[in-house]
Specification:
Sialidase, four-stranded antiparallel sheet, Sialidase domain-containing protein, 1 helix, mainly beta, globular, Neuraminidase, single chain, Sialidase_sf, about 400 residues
Length: about 400
């Protein structure tokens, strides 16, 4: 009898020990719709305000006629919920484009800049567009009249695929693709400008030429204050590979462009899928889409003062595109993208998520959306050391909607 009691006791203790060692199963993150269910919405973008609170902005129709405005909402609880959306009236005419995202930026003093694209059809290019911006100096209550990004507005007939970021000196930097160029060769020029207090963007200049005309650009400031720009360039007239350049002095000067990876993708067209980057303590990290030497989303890193590593596949699904990346837990990476999934009667899209460590080693792969919907163009933001938000557009129905998920990792 005593032996039986002892055996049961040991078994009981063993069960408790084992249960403590097994990782707990985490419930799947719940998708939350932020846009109006009756009006078409798309183009989510994630950032933080001057107090570090998550901000989600998107483009939403105001009526069934297709009149759109930029909207944004702030989270007071680390991304679990968002407040009521605020609409920016001075963004009237914004053109919703999933790759040419409308964006919002909060300066350290609370001033806000909203940047967006509008159509600009003209005899030279029926599909041309312009980049405009509007500012608020009272927390979003009122906004200045929208202004074209180019200082020489009359000379620039096509501006698009912009990005902006906060510089270490408190000003805001912006890059964009521009039709103004000094060569008849195909491609756009990469323009740079920065704010001068509340006077808007000044001192525009060209920092590279011959860029792929329809892929998004990315600006990023690392922990040392270096400003990085990544984009898809055109090399030797036909190759469209990813390029990187850096400024150590708040945009006053830039390095010579370097190719991130020699994919050698020769294509007479534009894939509408640009690069993204982030940083950990000792590495820069890049993700992009290509069909050069293989098709899909790829990753590489650049250790401090070293060259770019050999690229590695993130998703070899040929349709995998539109990657985004962020750092969390100081030394870990979260990568998201969209890819097609075959259904009985149609093709849908799902959002992929990959976790890597600071040296680029894969930790986990999963999908965030079911194959039964069509989810595209994810964006990502770290909201805590071990938590991220992923937002995306669900295009399952004609009235597309913007959704987000808070994910604890």
């Amino acid at each position: 009898m005593q032996y039986l009691r002892t055996l049961l006791y040991i078994t009981f203790i063993g069960l408790i020990f084992n249960s403590c060692q097994r990782p707990l199963k985490q419930a799947a993150p719940v998708a939350v719709r932020i846009s109006s269910p009756n009006l078409k919405s798309s183009c989510p973008y994630l950032t933080q305000d001057h107090q570090g609170r998550p901000v989600l902005c998107w483009v939403q129709a105001q009526d069934t006629a297709g009149n759109f405005l930029m909207a944004y909402a702030v989270s007071l609880d680390g991304g679990q919920t968002f407040g009521n959306p605020k609409f920016i009236a001075t963004t009237q005419g914004v053109h919703p484009h999933d790759e040419n995202l409308s964006k919002i930026l909060f300066r350290e003093n609370g001033d806000i800049i909203a940047m967006f694209a509008v159509n600009n059809p003209n005899p030279e290019n029926n599909y041309a567009g312009l980049v405009k911006y509007t500012q608020s100096f009272d927390g979003g209550k009122t906004w200045t009249a929208a202004k074209q990004i180019a200082e020489d507005a009359a000379a620039s007939i096509d501006e698009r695929y912009f990005d902006m970021t906060l510089l270490p000196n408190g000003e805001v930097a912006v890059i964009w693709l521009d039709s103004r160029k000094e060569t008849p060769a195909e491609g756009s020029s990469l323009y740079y400008a920065s704010t001068q207090g509340r006077a808007g963007f000044k001192h525009e200049k060209v920092i590279d030429q011959q860029l792929c005309q329809c892929c998004r650009t990315k600006l990023f400031v690392d922990a040392t204050g270096n400003l990085h720009a990544v984009y898809r360039g055109i090399i030797n007239g036909t190759v469209r590979d990813m390029m990187h350049l850096v400024s150590p002095d708040n945009g006053k000067s830039f390095s010579e462009p370097e190719r991130i990876s020699a994919d050698n993708w020769a294509i007479d067209g534009c894939p509408h899928s640009g690069p993204a980057m982030t940083a950990t303590n000792n590495n820069l990290h890049f993700v992009w889409y290509t069909m050069g030497g293989g098709s899909g989303v790829y990753y590489c890193r650049k250790p401090d003062k070293q060259g770019f590593s050999q690229r590695e596949i993130v998703s070899n699904v040929p349709s995998a595109k539109h990657p985004q990346i962020c750092t969390f837990n100081q030394e870990q990476l979260a990568i998201v993208w969209d890819e097609q999934t075959q259904q009985p009667n149609n093709l849908n899209n799902r959002i992929g998520l990959q976790i890597r460590d600071g040296k680029g080693q894969i930790i986990r792969n999963t999908h965030l959306t079911p194959d039964s919907i069509s989810a595209t163009h994810p964006v990502i933001l770290k909201v805590a050391e071990s938590a991220i938000i992923v937002a995306y557009t669900d295009k399952t129905t004609p009235n597309s909607q913007v959704w987000y998920k808070l994910i604890t990792l």
